[in-house]
């Protein structure tokens, strides 16, 4: 459904010296520079997948989305989405995709979301009954049915994002590209939007490609993550695999009825990270967990055991600072 091979994007730009003098000078003399944002990206995405694009700021995630959705033309390499070269912006292609870029609205500011949807309806030639049903269903799922006739500029950030998503899905696209859909939203709106996207992916089979710095979004939604690193693919697999390859250690929290005795027979490569009161927190490679659990009851009266993966934000800090194994 989506394939790229050696996909490369160079941006050409000019630097301007600061101040009025710099601005005037740049009118007459411009030196151009090139920045390589994507550097030979190869990927294949199958229909119905929910994929998260991860990477540090400036890694090339938005550029990837823009190339896949046809907003940019590649400098070299190939890209095919639904059998089309996106940058040609063929109508059949545009009818089958939708793009929601956090910082760019598809809704007109001064009119209601419904007015923008009606323009959409005309553009995509949607019949009235299907249109009405779709708007009602989507608005209900996102709890914004009573907000569609208010000028968009009067809506909050979260309400606007929900209205954006409705507009993007009215023509029932096969692929949805989303850039940071929950940025700046409160936990409630974030949860509603996550449930909605999960539903759209499952019920309609819509392929969704999402960029997000919110690891909770990625954990909740994406069964596959692609790590973009300096314009290349740094990792391709599940979030669980990414965690495993980055922080193989698991966290064990042992709670005792009262402060336990010394941790005798603790395997040598297990680290005690908290040793106070009745709680012992340890970090152990997953292969050592059973060994720890077999000696832990001898330290005291063990009342609770919790085994968890390393904290997601910690994992991402390791990944983004180049610590992927
Ligand atoms: N129009 C442009 N002109 C010049 N350079 C650009 C342009 N757009 C992006 N870049 C550069 O290309 C690189 C990749 O940018 P991109 O926006 O794809 O990164 P990103 O991974 O989406 O980052 P972020 O997480 O900060 O949104 C960055 O170094 C950025 O400065």
TrEMBL record:
Under SUPFAM superfamilies, the record lists: P-loop containing nucleoside triphosphate hydrolases
Subcellular localization is given as:
Cell membrane
Q: Where is the ABC transporter domain?
A: 22-255
Which GO cellular component does the record give, naming just one? plasma membrane
Membrane topology per the entry is:
Peripheral membrane protein
Could you give a GO molecular-function term held by this entry? Answer: ATP binding
Q: Say if the entry is tagged with keyword Transport.
A: yes
Query: Which processes are annotated in GO (biological process)?
Result: response to antibiotic
This protein's UniProt keywords: Antibiotic resistance, ATP-binding, Nucleotide-binding, Transport
Name of protein: ABC-2 type transport system ATP-binding protein
Species this protein is from: Microlunatus parietis
